[in-house]
Amino acid sequence: MTHRLEELSPFPLEITWHENKTTYLSVKKQGRRICLRLHRLFYDAPTPVLEALVQYALSRDPKARATIRQMAHLHFSHTVVPARALLAAGHIYDLQEIFDRMRTFVPIGEGVSIGWSESRRRGNLRSITFGTFNPHTRQIRIHPILDDAEVPLYFLEYIVYHEMLHALCPSKMDVCGRCKVHTREFREKERQFPRFEEAKRWEKGWNSFFKKRRFSGRS
To answer: What helix, strand, coil percent values describe the chain, rounded to 5?
Structure first.
């Protein structure tokens, strides 16, 4: 594969392969030499994708970038890797119980796991990601700040429901390489959550909840 890329480039290439999905492509120019760090998802890529990699390295061509993003999206959406197990039982809430209960509304089948993330309760909690779904590991992570008796059960159920929908309604990549996470289908199903409006109102009041905790000295 390195040889195929070198054949497509008018300049010498120095290629390093890695498994870091956060930065699946980085480019650095050293004189006439181009240094590429590429995720192994591109190792068996078809020729049009290899041409896009070279073109993007040379000129940051937006069409080439779109092709690269589409390839990465396809790989991470359809390739499942083992994930380290997370604890689902918290001090107050058991995520597995909530997850199993939400299956009544979101028929996602088997293969998706859930647990509390290992995020520490630091930083600006007023702007926080309550939950995430990783299609590459098929794992839902919920922020541990929600494991609190003052957080309504229906709100935590909504967050779990929301992340389960990501497993049911995968994101879509357009021809320009833009990823749409919350599709029309996703939004329609999201509003079917039994206490959707109530959960959204509580979410909007998060700042008040945050200030109350700060005032009481809890974190």
So the answer is: 45, 15, 40
